[in-house]
Design brief:
Elements (H helix, E strand, L loop, with lengths): L3 E2 L9 H10 L18 H18 L5 E6 L2 H13 L5 E6 L2 H10 L4 E6 L1 E4 L2 E4 L14 E4 L1 E2 L4 E2 L10 E4 L16 E5 L10 E6 L16 H6 L9 H16 L2 H22 L3 E2 L11 E6 L5 H10 L2 E2 L10 E4 L6 H18 L1
Parallel strand pairs: 1-15, 3-4, 3-7, 7-10, 10-11
Antiparallel strand pairs: 2-12, 5-6, 8-9, 11-12, 13-14, 14-16
Helix pairs in contact: 1-6, 2-6, 3-4, 7-9
Bound molecules: 4'-deoxy-4'-aminopyridoxal-5'-phosphate (PMP).
The site of 4'-deoxy-4'-aminopyridoxal-5'-phosphate has 11 residues, from α3.
Amino acid sequence: MRAYNFCAGPAALPTAVLEKAQQELLDWQGKGVSIMEMSHRSKDYVAVAEKAEADLRKLMNIPENYKVLFLQGGATLQFSAIPLNLLGKNSQADYIHTGIWSEKAIKEAQRYGQINIVEAGTKVEGKLAISDASTWQLSEQAAYVHYCENETIGGLQFNQIPETKAPLVADLSSSILSAPIDVSKFGLIYAGAQKNIGPAGLTLVIVRDDLLDQVKPEIPSLLKYSAQAKNDSMVNTPATYAWYLSGLVFEWLLEQGGVDAIHKINQQKAALLYGYIDASDFYNNPIAPANRSLMNVPFTLADSNLDKLFLEEAEKNHLLNLAGHRSVGGMRASIYNAVPLEAVQALVQFMDDFAKRNG
Ligand code: PMP
């Protein structure tokens, strides 16, 4: 049986997608070979790659003046690729700091430019929150403003797109495709695939055309967005299997009714879990309601000595990967698109039972 998987990433994939991949694994559409044994330049593979891009464009309503790149190296390599691509003419950028992932992006960007750090973490009634964009000291001269839309570890999420003069660059690794978003408000969006897109090994970059001409000359050629765009993300061999499988996830999402439809289910899942935690004296979530993540729900138990038992019993109940990030401890339930409402219902039932027996 398949367990309910609350892993933060690599994360749950839709069972229907894995079944389709299984069916096609040895003999892709009667060709006698697996898709992962095909040349990335073959007509068949290129059609798969192009279909994935077209479906993603449909799902996110991506305007024509944006390139969609299917790259490798994870979101982490984008922490370097972004300044290397965008700080060639003007070396200043603003970075909004809200947690561990935005901090990692800052550390890397500081190697390439003059980075103005905007501390946006705050507290509202004792809970962690993101300060209002109107209070931020953005610089006049920034080439771009970077932020992490959803801090996967902290479980802290922006509840609106910040208004900025400079182009917005957003890390959507853990929130892409979970809710509708207006791509035209961004200069660049990037995301590692292994949460809401597909398996690890693929990284999406969605970049506005006019930002392709400000590259730093020392950039490794493989990281250059303009070159990848010109070569349909095939400057070298791309992550063909991850790209194919992501394409299956996009097809699955379209079958579910697209991003609007999955967003409604995501809202139900989050409301159920946060609602239960808030009503309980045994569990606590540290985030102010306005900035709670739709995808990553951290929580603590009244007594951290019970953490180990909680995780052991959860696993016995087929509820997997609920431990918080190693840097923060506690618990975290990641409830990405492929985690069904029934999984969250089962989790809440288990949590309630555990609290009654141990509270
Ligand atoms: N940004 C965010 C918001 C993340 O959650 C992660 C991974 N969990 C990363 C960046 C780094 O991604 P990768 O492991 O693909 O480099």
